[in-house]
Amino acid sequence: MSRDDDATNERDASSGPEPSEPDAADPDAARAVVAARSDGEPPDTTEIRELAAAAGYAVVGEVTQRRREDPTYDLGRGKAEELMRLAADAGAEAVIYDGGLSPGQTFSLGDLLPAGTAVIDRPRLVLELFADAADSRAADRQLELARLRYELPRLREAVARDASEDVRLQPEGDSRVLDVEKRIESAERALDEIADDRAARRAERRAAGFDLIALAGYTNAGKSTLARRLADEVDEAGDPVDDNGDPAADVGPLAVADRPFETLSTTTRRATIGDRRTLLTDTVGFLDGLPHESVRSFRATIESVRTADCALLVVDASDDPADLRRKLLASLSAIETTEGHVVPVLSKADEVGSDGLADAVEAYEAAVDGLDPRDAPFVDALRSPIPVSARDGTGLADLADAVADALPTATASVSAPNGGAAQAALSWAYDRGVVASVDYEGETVAVDLAGRPDVVAEAERRLNGAVPPS
Ligand SMILES: Nc1nc2c(ncn2[C@@H]2O[C@H](COP(=O)(O)OP(=O)(O)O)[C@@H](O)[C@H]2O)c(=O)[nH]1
Ligand SMILES: [Mg+2]
């Protein structure tokens, strides 16, 4: 795997096609009926409608039900029949189901609906959306793997249904199933190689003195807006950087798009936070409803969050308490674990006013209180979110302080005989951003170092090794 292949995974955010808002009145848009069921609260179809619209469907009706799950259709039989009539009357090409259907439920519902009506459950819809956003080889591979993992149990069901007359035909031995299993293995291998490359690149970036920061959170939480706000103004808006943290070639103005996924790749920019030089990685948002297996396919995002020196967990303060909690849980269950620190952030503070913010903090803390430490081992780190507004700048200084405090830091003071060797060591340390102060005292140079522990240690070693000029 060449470095170039991996580099495409961190793309220039400006080079992709302009995200297009699907036109609700588009006569060619596929007509879809939305269906949703929930055990408790009445189903809220806002998000699934937005996702359907983003995927290019015109939603022409909906059916909802409060009821426990029915094994056959998920909906109760009566509701399922109502859905069938509505789909027929509306001439719907698809039923979009707000939830995951088992393979059996998918087939049963498909049999009940008018011929040719596609059954698209939430995971399938999300995969369709991701398909539009796949913008690099790595993203394509991730998407392929997620799709194959989604399709495999459905294919097994289809094979089992075909074979129900013939007990000798088991899905396990079916060539189509074997083929998908083989493709899953090969996609996993390819992604392993890409992941190895990314790990090597992280090590290089750290050795060059950069702290690695990642933004994580639900789709639409405000991550990308915050990333641009925190980024150094290389040109206008904190343009993406290449492997060395230098401005990437071929950068242009960045489009801020109000749609679920601008891109499936991560985008990294330089950001100076406190006196630290950091690389800030903006990630694809998490989204409810992808099965765990599929979520794990989107490794680039999850990996950059897990391995960051500091992960900012962005939570939208303008969501109502139930949504805030749901999205927080979805994000945490995707992240699972982190190696570095987590700094929780309540975004869009400008939108809610001070009362609204107090409510959001309360809802957030209540959601964190309800967490099981086994589900989120970093529960304690999630307390006391920092309210910010990327729009009006509220809280950004507090956020910078919190991040700077969270970064791994070592300090050292070294004196070396002044001369070429000391100057070379000093310049090495300057390049990596770990020189806090320099004093020239006669024949010696006294240096205070502060920054990444590994880099400070290496700078100290070089300065100590500087031999006196002869
Ligand atoms: N009022 C307000 N809106 C924001 C703020 N940050 C982001 N938004 C809006 O929230 C939406 C999602 O933002 P985006 O950064 O794309 O979210 P992402 O999906 O997490 O990257 C966009 O419409 C933004 O304009 C903020 O600080 N205040
Ligand atoms: Mg974004």
From TrEMBL:
InterPro entries: G_HFLX_dom, GTP-bd, GTPase_HflX, GTPase_HflX_N, GTPase_HflX_N_sf, P-loop_NTPase. The keyword Repeat does not apply. One of its GO terms (cellular component) is cytoplasm. Mg(2+) binds at residues 224, 263. The keyword Magnesium applies. SUPFAM superfamilies: P-loop containing nucleoside triphosphate hydrolases. Residues 1-13 have a biased composition (Basic and acidic residues). One of its GO terms (molecular function) is metal ion binding. This is GTP-binding protein HflX. It comes from Halorubrum xinjiangense.
